[in-house]
Amino acid sequence: RRHCPRGTAGNAQADSNRRRRQSSSRHFVMDFQQLYGRLFTAGAASDAMLVWDLASERLAARLPLHTTVAPTALCARPARDEVALVGFADGSVRCFDPRTGAAPVCISRPHSKAVVRVAAEPGRAHGGHVVSASAAGDISLWDVRNTDAGPLCRIAAHQSAMTAAAVHPHAPLLATASASAHIKVFDLKGEQLSCIRYTNSFLGSRITSVGCLAFHPYGGVLVTGSLDGAVSVYSSNTA
């Protein structure tokens, strides 16, 4: 009769349960490539990024992520044959070419914590410059063609955890939100242009922790979604 050390079976079962919980709690991220009608998805129970052709309602490509780390952000570049960018919980960003379906064409780790947002640099959608933001509160502008060179620009946006970030698709603007209920707007040189923060006055706007941000694609309008269910719209037009 084979002897089994005490606790081994229990530890194995606990480890198995923990892995299942981690797998089931993985983020699900997606991005829509409107010009070509393609939907990019990653996360949940899948170990690959899936590219769906919405016109034919068929799976166009399946790109293995080649990692067990949960994806936390995704960006489908505007051009049909450009790489797709996926950010992960360990602070890394992987670039995939939907035409090859093979291994990532580029792997970088610009952050120490989970990537909150990754996007192409505004105005250079067909170039190699990428903007990424992390839960640690920092933002990096870097070049996927030369990751060894380090970031082109780094912004220390928040001292507390960053909960959301947005990059304007055309203007050199980005917005971030923190767990301390601060919303900040920066240009790509790192200059802070605006700050919206919680106020206790009945005359001021009350905001709680923000879970999502989005810019209007053709205007200076920022929309925020708070964890208390409120949606706020901010405009640069003071008239």
From TrEMBL:
Residues 1-24 are annotated as: Disordered. GO terms for molecular function: protein-macromolecule adaptor activity. WD repeats lie at residues 155-189, 203-239. SMART domains: WD40. GO terms for cellular component: cytoplasm; TORC1 complex. Pfam families: WD40. Keywords: WD repeat. Signal peptide: none annotated. GO terms for biological process: cellular response to amino acid stimulus; cellular response to starvation; positive regulation of cell growth; regulation of autophagy; TOR signaling. This is Uncharacterized protein. It comes from Prasinoderma singulare.
